[in-house]
Amino acid sequence: MGNTPSVQAKKRERLGSRYARRLRAGGELPAVIYGHHQDPVAVSVNEKELITHLTRGQRVFTIDVEGAGAETCLVNELQFDFLGNNVIHVDLTRIDLTESVNVNISIKLVGKPVGLKTEGAILRLVKDSVGVSCLAADVPSEALAVDVSGLEVGDFLTAGQLQLPVGLTLDEEADEVICQISVVEEDEEAPVEEPEGGEPEIIGEKQEGEGEEAEKE
């Protein structure tokens, strides 16, 4: 996976939405660290630093908590504002790089399907991510490139047909449709389909007993 980025964090002594807003106004993101049968720890991290790493595909970090030492953590969930544009809170899960984790990896379609040469043909992306399991050290930092250039009208691609990198195992039903080519008749309006899941992306899953929140935003 390459080097794990290190991110500085500070413990939060005050919780609640008012103090969270103050943190965000000062360029900090509220976060909570869960996992490994330890108590949750409320922290804040530099927003610009973390978002920069996330946009580069990083999901595993060394979180260096001021006065408490460093811990390896997986980004478990990102919470967005009501417009869905800005991250307002981060859930982190303590992990060991040698343990297995469940994550969602983004899908990037590449190539131009031959089926699009047919008049009225469209390519529908049904799912923009796929669930996999792998060692924490092997969590991909890039989207999974899927070649769709060979798809004809009526063809579809399922999760089970994806060529996953070595070390990754599909963690959902193999017959889940990822994308498909279909023709829209002139007298019918093309349906607007969104990728599954309107909620903020869940990067991993909290382990059993870790679902209690340290605070309510």
Report on this structure.
There is one protein chain. The chain has 217 residues and is mainly beta. The chain folds into 2 domains: 6-95, Ribosomal Protein L25, Chain P (Beta Barrel), CATH 2.40.240; 102-183, Ribosomal protein L25, C-terminal domain (RNA Polymerase Alpha Subunit, Chain A, domain 2), CATH 2.170.120. The protein is 8% helix and 39% strand. The chain has 2 helices and 13 strands, in the order βαββαββββββββββ. It has helices spanning 17-25, 47-55; strands at 6-11, 28-34, 41-46, 60-65, 69-80, 87-94, 100-110, 121-125, 129-135, 144-147, 156-158, 169-170, 177-183. The strands form 3 sheets. The protein has a 6-stranded mixed barrel with strand order 1-3-2-6-5-4. Strands 10-7-9-12 form a 4-stranded mixed beta sheet, with no helix packed on it. Strands 8-13-11 form a 3-stranded antiparallel beta sheet, with no helix packed on it. The chain is elongated and about 60 Å long. The two termini are 33 Å apart. Residues 197-214 have low confidence and may be disordered.
